[in-house]
Design goal:
It holds the Pfam family Hydrolase. This is Putative hydrolase of the HAD superfamily. Keywords: Hydrolase. GO terms for molecular function: 5'-nucleotidase activity. Strand 2, helix 6 and strand 3 form a beta-alpha-beta unit. This protein folds into 2 domains: 133 residues, Rossmann fold (3-Layer(aba) Sandwich); 84 residues, Putative phosphatase, domain 2 (DNA polymerase, domain 1). 47% of the residues lie in helices and 12% in strands.
């Protein structure tokens, strides 16, 4: 059937999370006068953050565990002593600073301008409500999207099939007229497929994937499929 609804992931798909996150950490470390080798910190933090997000998706840790645990583990790795109070302040400031810088992946505006006249566009994100809406507003992306579905609103996280059904209901859509576009194989691609969506994998790292899965290495290539 014809695709009428396109559901995008936000972080790592349209919004360049790693670049914006790096800028936020640089700012909050300077604010708190922490003499930290930023490159060394980020080298460990990225992998630790991914581990914590996986646990969060699997409902094994809370939002608070994620926000503070990833910092504590990284400081431990680089052997930098910091109090629990400072970790708490950093976690709060990080969430505050993160949506202030809104670097997007190349071609974001162009592909949305191309799709917007012909499809209903929506967001499905596991990110925190208080951050994701600011990112969308501050980056100028809000105007493109009809419905914004967050895991906090849905009560479950991708790849849980219930969030995809929640999104379909909110958008007044059906799965066989819908496609999910995202970068996370487990959360976005396998999760959406299990809910009956077509999918496009944003394979920016050019990983080997099955030819049965639509895959793009940059956003402009989405035009091949839509």
């Amino acid at each position: 059937m014809k695709i009428n609804h396109i559901f995008f992931d936000l972080d790592h798909t349209l919004w360049d999370f790693e670049t914006n996150s790096d800028i936020a950490f640089d700012a909050i470390f300077k604010k708190h006068n922490l003499k930290i080798d930023l490159h060394k910190f980020l080298n460990y933090y990225r992998g630790i953050n991914q581990k914590y997000w996986k646990l969060y998706r699997e409902e094994k840790i809370s939002k608070e565990d994620l926000r503070e645990g990833r910092l504590k583990d990284t400081f431990a790795k680089i052997k930098y002593n910091v109090s629990n109070d400072v970790v708490n302040y950093l976690a709060i400031d990080y969430i505050e600073f993160l949506p202030n810088n809104n670097i997007l992946f190349e071609g974001t505006y162009e592909i949305l301008d191309y799709l917007h006249p012909n499809y209903e566009l929506h967001i499905i994100t596991n990110g925190f409500n208080e951050v994701q809406f600011k990112k969308l507003d501050n980056s100028g992306l809000s105007k493109y999207f009809d419905k914004i579905i967050t895991s906090e609103e849905a009560g479950v996280k991708k790849p849980n099939p219930h969030i995809f059904q929640f999104a379909l209901n909110k958008a007044n859509a059906v799965s066989n007229e819908s496609i999910m576009i995202g970068d996370n194989w487990e959360a976005d691609i396998m999760g959406a497929k299990s809910a009956g969506f077509d999918v496009i994998f944003c394979n920016f790292n050019k990983e080997p994937v099955s030819e049965s899965i639509k895959s793009v290495s940059n956003l402009s290539q989405i035009k091949k499929y839509l």
